Amino acid sequence: MDPENPDDERLIELIGAGDKASLQRFHDRYRDLVFTVAYRVCGQECDAETVLVTVFWQIWKNPSAWNPQRGSVRTYLLLLTRSRARDLMRSENGRASSERRATEERSLQHARDQTQLDPSEQVADKMMGNRLRAATATLPDEVRQALDLAFFDGLTHTEIADRLDIPLGTVKTRIRRGLAELRERLAATKNDWSNP
Q1: Burial, 134: exposed, middle or buried (Cβ in 10 Å; 0-12, 13-18, 19+)?
Q2: CA-to-CA distance for 163 and 26, rounded, in angstroms?
């Protein structure tokens, strides 16, 4: 065994003995792999970074969790990464549910407030709503469906991808495209008060 380049098992032993340099070596060896796996599960760079930090912190705090009878260090690291990424996504989904409830409450409050607007504001709001509905109706079905799930059902991009059984990148592209097209259509009719 090369002392300048110890294998994974030896690095884990050294980490268990509190050797920070070994943790740094282990991190340098596997950070790209851990980040890539985390990114595939989470779909967002900032979430993958969170998983990366969590995984190497866990290796530092509990290197003895790796069991040689259950597989290689690399296999353990990959399983740990997937597990932490899924944990993060579950907690994110829980947070999204709370945010969805808060959004619904704000919408309810907005509806209550609408009844207190003066008539000219109510007319302007109604006209804007009509313009938005008309612009939305011209979008392709798959784009409109993604927007509806995101903004009316309050689903996250990941939840939409799961529900529609399409890649996360496709969901993001459809939503981005839909919003861009809506902006263009609404800008084109901005001063046209004759629109329904």
Answers
A1: middle
A2: 38
- Does the domain formed by 117-188 have CATH 1.10.10.10? yes
CATH of segment(s) 8-90: 1.10.1740.10
Which of 151, 123, 134, 139 shows the shortest CA–CA distance to 180?
Answer: 139
User: Could you tell me the CA-to-CA distances from 20 to 15, 27, 59, 122, 130 in Å, in that order?
Assistant: 7, 10, 11, 65, 62
Contact indicator for 59, 8 with CB cutoff of 8 Å = no
Summarised one tens digit per residue, pLDDT across range 65-81 is 888 888 888 888 989 99
Residue-wise pLDDT for 114-151, tens only, equals: 555 556 665 665 666 677 777 777 888 898 888 888 77
